[in-house]
């Protein structure tokens, strides 16, 4: 059986001009990056196009068994194209850190992939590198301000702006910098986040244009003065330089799927400490250029899904026409208590016990008033009985479920799903959309809506620190910002080990992080790692390239 | 008067296809990056082309008055093109750190520039970002090996591989990493270099192909075991992954000058701790595609010039046909003791006193048996008398000098220089080339040749540490490696404050740094900063971009 990269490498990739023509871009609306990638910037007239339909792909809580959300997203789009519907995919860009670590790439799998796979998984068009560069330039400017007489009276113990690298490097989580004597800066504690966790990543993916991005950048709170007053990038006066460094990164990237469906891949913010979906510009561009845009949100429906509907949707100005919840028999068995080792064996008992996880996500997604369907992403060992059990369960929520074999068959394996999704979009009515909370609600009210209606729990419990923070934030109006929940992706609760669909739980808010540039308030539950580490056998050990540039071992 | 960026922005830039056609590349020999940049990889048949002539531009010791070496390089190439000679420029890529700091960009100036100026000065085609990424991936893999049981028995106090960022950030010179407890690595001292100081930068610019690059990468010494035995990248087993990350960065980048002369801009190693010139591949590619290649070497003839002739020339397999030594009246006056504030006033006394600096460089360059000419880069306030004095002085060495006004007039201001250079190349005879030392010479013998014949000093004096290192290096054969002198660029001596042409001095070698991947031994004199800092008023404060993407303040 071929590996993902072998399938990708043997693909008949089209020159990007052919994809550009298919999409209908004029010469001034795109720039090539190599022979099979482009950056896109629509003209004002194309931006007036009527928006197509938006299909949001989300999932049950991820497990080590794998759900294949990106694979379903790509396969569904290819299926729609096979049905002669003008379709585009909108996805996040992969982070290089995990590619060299454990996770591998993030370009789908099997016969449902976006290509050129190796390029997309490594440097692509340089967006993440531009972000890393902009992030660390800002950090250097902050420490230089401290060093050059500290005119902003920054408290060196209260700098919020860390440094960033797109590498899995646990040794950089906690560092001390500025050592080496008077010519090498002011010693202080610091740390590195992975680039996708940078507030600049959230900003890039939330901005409609350069001006909007500059305004957001100028609002970033970089730290506090000795009087505990917030200091922003505007106070430092470098929003122009930082925006300049992101002038190309703001443009969505155009590539193709194995079946030549046009795909916009742009930005990759975390789905816990940020909104977890590709850029607003990419989604908007796809909507302006196609009749059907298939996009995904990170992690499960409780994280990426909720954030898409409560935070991204108002900014995008477009409600999804259908939500696809991806589930697998394997993952549901794990939610029912089965071990990873035994997933290839039929086990209806475990499956039944795990179905509740799917159920909670169906309930929570249905509450928004958007049509919902289930995609059962089929794996080799799934039995007909198991698949039927999941389908019947979905139907008990009034939701149609479709078995899709996108890994093995690409778009051909998702024909029924595609037809079901198109039918579902016909039922969509924007007036039915029911937001979870109102912008003017207090932070705690917003969080309790999420805990109760999305997670199925009791209530939010704030730590003493979080309570105190909220009181302080009132002074600046930060308590009214949209809420971004930073919670484990593995459970509906804040305990990564509680699978299935627990009901008897509270959510514990340890701390808030104000992200004024991105324009949200992060509520941290437990400890969220913003710099991953490498495993004992990093993927890097298996990656190689020969004299002709042929790459092996990239997955 | 227009600023450099205003001139660059108002230029009539040609689509890169037009430059590609002019150069004669076939479709499979190049890839576009945007509309005005390309990456080039010659076919095997084009690589059989007869090599054109090579013109090396170097200079007197740089002063704060400015020499304009890149500007002369570009202006001279444009002048040759005006004379209907098929010409290409080969230059280094600018580093982003100084662009945001004090120095500004490195794309020439006035009417002798390479464009697109802002792109080249910022992310360009991502080469430096790929290097940063590869460098830090290797660093993370090293710390991960320490963390995961340390199978290579690395001594955490003797890790040589630091981390790297393309930012001027003095606070990162000396850091401690791995803090935060058992889950966040092994605490140890570390530091960051600017990306251009990475050994990977030297390797990228010395490699002829992917295989050669992988071999060099595998030889990098990353640190020592507790038994003080060297540990290499090959021991870690990740040369394949690191090479894969550099698969596109190894290809030279094609752009154009304001006058549409094709320019290959590729790599940018330091001229003190590395060889200080653009990649071998870019120089070779230019030689294969043109009749005249104009290239430059970093800093003065004592650093970049010497390294080009003693280190790069044998690897390139091509001796320069002419060496152009750039001098300015202003800089020579500073070498004669004049203050920077008074340079616009005529001062023949100071000029006479400073001429010795030019003289030493003419002597040292002439000794290689390559024709030498002087380019006097004219500034507004230079008087005819001053210019004549410099010309006459050069003639006393049997060297012709030509006044060039490339900043104000582009190629038209360098017609006489171009004609003189072409005539000089007719005199070149490879059999005249006299290397400074033999590969089998001992390190100290090599260094003494450099000190005496290039710097005009007495001898090299080794510190106790350096002596001890040489004794140790004998064990591994490292003492026979080519020597790369890391010395201040401002003086022929190792004291940055000694201008002119001192004769009564020794050179003090503090320490050696073995760079087995790059394949040279760095001899450190004094302390060489490998991570610059930002000034009180960083250039970033003045850089801005408007809603149309128009950039201001970049210089």
Automatic annotation (TrEMBL), chains A, B:
It catalyses: (6S)-5,6,7,8-tetrahydrofolate + formate + ATP = (6R)-10-formyltetrahydrofolate + ADP + phosphate. Keywords: ATP-binding, Ligase, Nucleotide-binding, One-carbon metabolism. CDD domains: FTHFS. Coiled coil: none annotated. The keyword ATP-binding applies. ATP binds at residues 63-70. This is Formate--tetrahydrofolate ligase. It comes from Weissella thailandensis. The gene is fhs.
């Amino acid at each position: 059986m071929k590996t993902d990269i072998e399938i990708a490498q043997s693909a008949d990739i089209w020159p990007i001009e052919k994809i550009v023509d298919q999409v209908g871009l004029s010469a001034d609306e795109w720039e090539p990056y190599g022979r099979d990638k482009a950056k896109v910037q629509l003209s004002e007239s194309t931006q007036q196009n009527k928006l197509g339909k938006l299909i949001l792909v989300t999932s049950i809580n991820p497990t080590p068994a794998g759900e294949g959300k990106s694979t379903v997203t790509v396969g569904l789009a290819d299926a729609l194209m096979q049905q002669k519907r003008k379709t585009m995919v909108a996805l996040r860009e992969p982070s290089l850190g995990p590619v060299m670590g454990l996770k591998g790439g993030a370009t789908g799998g099997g016969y449902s992939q976006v290509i050129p796979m190796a390029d997309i998984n490594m440097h692509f068009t340089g967006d993440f590198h531009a972000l890393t560069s902009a992030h660390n330039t800002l950090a250097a400017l902050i420490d230089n301000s401290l060093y050059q007489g500290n005119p902003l009276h920054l408290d060196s113990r209260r700098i919020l702006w860390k440094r960033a690298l797109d590498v899995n490097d646990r040794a950089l989580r906690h560092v001390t910098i500025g050592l080496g004597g008077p010519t090498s800066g002011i010693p202080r504690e610091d740390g590195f986040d992975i680039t996708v966790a940078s507030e600049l990543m959230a900003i890039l993916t939330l901005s409609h244009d350069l001006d909007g991005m500059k305004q957001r950048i100028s609002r970033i709170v970089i730290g506090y003065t000795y009087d505990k007053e917030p200091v922003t990038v505007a106070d430092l006066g470098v929003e122009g330089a930082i925006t300049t460094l992101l002038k190309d990164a703001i443009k969505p990237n155009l590539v193709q799927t194995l079946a030549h469906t046009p795909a916009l891949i742009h930005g990759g913010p975390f789905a816990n400490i940020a909104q977890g979906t590709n850029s607003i510009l990419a989604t908007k561009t796809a909507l302006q250029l196609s009749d059907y845009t298939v996009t995904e949100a990170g992690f499960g429906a409780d994280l990426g899904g909720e954030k898409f509907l409560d935070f991204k949707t108002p900014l995008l100005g477009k409600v999804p026409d259908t939500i696809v919840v991806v589930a697998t028999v394997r993952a549901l068995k794990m939610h029912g208590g089965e071990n990873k080792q035994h997933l290839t064996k039929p086990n209806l008992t475990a499956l039944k016990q795990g179905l509740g996880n799917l159920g909670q996500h169906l309930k929570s997604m249905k509450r928004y008033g958007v049509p919902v369907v289930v995609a059962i992403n089929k794996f080799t060992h799934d039995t007909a009985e198991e698949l039927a059990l999941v389908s019947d369960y979905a139907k008990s929520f009034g939701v149609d479920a479709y078995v899709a074999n996108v890994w093995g068959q690409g778009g051909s394996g998702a024909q029924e799903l595609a037809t079901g999704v198109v039918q579902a979009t016909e039922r969509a009515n924007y007036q039915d959309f029911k937001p979870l909370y109102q912008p003017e609600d207090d932070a705690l009210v917003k969080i309790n809506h999420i805990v109760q209606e999305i997670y199925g729990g009791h209530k939010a419990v704030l730590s003493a620190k979080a309570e105190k923070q909220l009181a302080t934030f009132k002074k600046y109006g930060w308590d009214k910002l949209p809420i971004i929940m930073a919670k484990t992706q593995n459970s509906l609760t804040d305990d990564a080990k509680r699978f299935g669909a627990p009901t008897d739980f509270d959510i514990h808010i340890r701390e808030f992080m104000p992200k004024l540039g991105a324009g949200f308030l992060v509520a941290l539950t437990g400890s969220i790692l913003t710099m991953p580490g490498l495993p004992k056998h990093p993927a890097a050990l298996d990656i190689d390239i020969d004299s002709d540039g042929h790459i092996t071992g990239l997955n």
